[in-house]
Write a structure and sequence with these properties.
heterodimer, A: alpha+beta, Rossmann fold, 2 domains, six-stranded mixed β-sheet, five-stranded antiparallel β-sheet, 20 strands, 34% strand, B: mainly alpha, MetI-like fold, two-stranded antiparallel sheet, 1% strand, globular
Chain lengths: 352, 296
């Protein structure tokens, strides 16, 4: 177990800068998720921590040691790849023992560790099989087994679940989280799936275009997004955003809809802002101040997503009631005033 | 897709015909090798099965008997020529040494070279690859005289080592390109996983990558073996006392006549070692050896 510190790290491919001086500190034993759309630099950052990509500027520290020029094999890390990268010509047992063999670990220790990993991951019946004889979930577990037998200081996961089907993904998500709770090894996990990030992380680091947009606990980034990007990226269905300006202490949209702002709002008079409100804080309510017409109704079972148009933007309301509204129905809406987020239109930054 | 019955029958007939067309020369070759002299040279037309089979051609080429000895044993009449110049036992041994030696050398050098070309960063890699391929553009006949002089200066003329080196040089370009394509199919994450597991480059190559492309290595080895086994031109120029099979066979065309019996017998025998070699490696020639290391 160790802390991981990323200090002013820059990654350049020739002239092209893909990571722009990132700072990040990861506490011992925590589970950190690097989240972002593809091309945001999250995998590159992970690979720099792993030592698979050279660092152009800045330092990466594992524990107290700067590892910039340390070979991956000497960093005492383990990595699980998106495509598992199992050794096809080796059995499950051999796949897991490879690293220990290279270290010339004693035979009985290898046996013991493999038995231990296999029991944690339910791989006991498959130890003598080859990867091609296993299902996707089992291969994923072998890749994890290969990582845990080495008892590394840091686990690195590079989108490990994206090749699994939906049901298995949910199951493996729980298994990885359980594994972490059991081993308490510092874990860095890369994904573009915000549900994975929300459910697994102690800390989510949201990245875009080589910058960190926000880092914090899942509920922190969900409840208090720092900027428009984070507000839109986290949450499904995503946050409703309406453009407008502040007039007389109220928000007035481009189409003229007025919405009362919570007391103590720091937006200046006349400031061009974007109002954000999560679908679950948008309620169909006959006494509501907003009026709209229902576009699409999506029942998911536990809740119903009702889409409607407001000033030319699609807005979503989530309700657990059985409202029985149909497309075309007029509907009145109420917004939870204390859940309204305001963002500066020009900079995208939250106004708090 | 389900094909209808008549279509399937038609396909089978066509396939059979094609196989017959391609197999016929081999069949005719081996048939001629057990024909007596009179059946090979029949003025009335080709003889198919209407002859007394004889092993005389094999006895002379493979057992080193003179034709007279062979004839006396089987009670036949003596033909022209005769003597131990048709004894090909040493030739076969030398051919095997050259083919196996050059195949091993080619594979050792090419796997390492292609791994480097597939994995390591290198300035102008594309140009280098093209240059490797371009080594095969020139017909060997254009280079054979300079090669001969170089081999003479290095005292490699008429040595097995020289011939092994020469055949390795012919095979390396194709082997490198072929192996590189197999290596390119192995995802680089495998190397990275091995590296993180604590393996050095060489350990990664030897213990992880090489076993994963053994199908490709086997296929390449077969190709190299066959090229060396059938190579004529360089063998002819670079050797005098050492004779590989194709060169030896060419000497059976003599000023007093062409020894079709010996040519076909030795030719048929020449199929056997390459056949055995292919049998040995063919179980590795299965596609999808990397199956299972990846997602699906």
């Amino acid at each position: 177990m160790a802390t991981v510190t990323v200090r002013d790290v820059v990654k350049k491919y020739g002239e092209l800068k893909v990571i722009h001086g990132i700072n990040l500190s990861i506490a011992e034993g925590s589970f950190v998720v690097l989240l972002g759309p593809s091309g945001c630099g999250k995998s590159t950052l992970l690979r720099m921590i792993a030592g698979l990509e050279p660092i152009s500027e800045g330092d990466v520290l594992i524990g107290d040691r700067v590892v910039n020029d340390v070979h991956p094999k000497d960093r005492n890390i383990a990595m699980v790849f998106q495509n598992y990268a199992l050794y096809a010509h080796m059995t499950v047992r051999e796949n897991m023992s490879f690293a220990l063999d290279l270290r010339k670990a004693p035979k009985d220790e290898i046996e013991r560790k493999i038995a231990w990993a296999a029991s944690i991951l339910n791989l006991e019946p498959y130890l003598d099989r080859y990867p091609k004889q296993l299902s996707g979930g089992q291969r994923q577990r072998v890749a994890m087994g290969r990582a845990i037998v080495r008892n590394p200081e840091v686990f690195l996961f590079d989108e490990p679940l994206s090749n699994l089907d939906a049901k298995l993904r949910v199951q493996m998500r729980t298994e990885i989280k359980e594994l972490h709770q059991r081993l308490k090894t510092t874990t860095i996990y890369v994904t573009h799936d915000q549900i994975e990030a929300m459910t697994m992380a102690d800390k989510i680091v949201i990245m875009r275009n080589g910058y960190i947009e926000q880092a914090g606990s899942p509920l922190e980034v969900y409840d208090n997004p720092d900027n428009l990007f984070v507000a839109e990226f986290i949450g499904s269905p995503s946050m409703n955003l309406i453009e407008g300006r502040v007039e007389g202490g109220r928000f007035v949209s481009k189409g003229g809809t007025a919405i009362a702002l919570p007391a103590g709002c720091k937006a200046g008079e006349g400031q061009a802002v974007v109002l954000g409100i999560r679908p679950e804080h948008t309620h169909p309510d006959p006494a509501g101040a907003l009026e709209a017409r229902v576009g699409v109704v999506e029942p998911t079972g536990p809740e119903t997503h009702i889409y409607f148009e407001l000033d030319g933007r699609d807005i979503c309301a989530v309700t657990r009631e059985r409202t029985g509204v149909k497309p075309g129905d007029p509907i009145r809406l109420r917004l939870d005033a204390d859940r309204i987020h305001l963002f500066d239109q020009a900079s995208g930054k939250a106004i708090r | 897709m389900q094909t209808s019955r008549p279509v399937q029958i038609l396909k089978d007939i066509l396939a059979t015909l094609i196989v017959i067309v391609f197999m016929f020369p081999i069949f005719w070759w081996s048939l001629s090798s057990i024909k007596p002299y009179t059946a090979i040279f029949n003025k009335d037309g080709p003889v198919y099965f209407d002859f007394q089979p004889t092993l005389q051609n094999y006895e002379v080429t493979l057992l080193g008997k003179s034709r007279i000895e062979s004839n006396l044993e089987s009670g036949g009449t003596s033909g022209a020529g005769g003597g131990s110049s048709y004894d090909s036992r040493e030739t076969i041994l030398q051919s095997i040494i050259v083919a196996v030696g050059s195949t091993i050398l080619t594979i050792v050098l090419s796997t390492l070279a292609s791994y480097a070309l597939s994995r390591l960063p290198m300035r102008g890699k594309q140009h280098f690859l093209f240059w490797i391929l371009s080594q095969r553009f020139m017909p060997p006949i254009a280079a054979v005289i300079p090669i001969m002089f170089m081999f003479r200066d290095m005292a490699l003329l008429d040595t097995l080592t020289g011939l092994i080196i020469a055949h390795t040089l012919i095979n390396i370009p194709i082997a490198v390109l072929l192996l590189k394509s197999f290596l390119d199919d192995v995802p680089k994450e495998i190397d990275e996983a091995a590296m993180i597991d604590g393996a050095t480059r060489l350990q990664t190559f030897r213990r992880i990558i090489l076993p994963m492309i053994k199908g490709g290595v086997a296929a390449t080895a077969v190709l190299c073996f066959i090229v060396s086994w059938t190579e004529f031109l360089l063998s002819l120029y670079l050797t005098t006392s050492i004779r590989t099979l194709p060169v030896k066979i060419s000497t059976f065309v003599t000023s007093t006549g062409t020894e079709w019996g010996f040519i076909t017998a030795l030719g048929t025998s020449a199929i056997v070692p390459s056949f055995i070699f292919i049998l040995l490696v063919q179980r590795h020639l299965v596609r999808g050896l990397t199956l299972g290391s990846l997602k699906d």
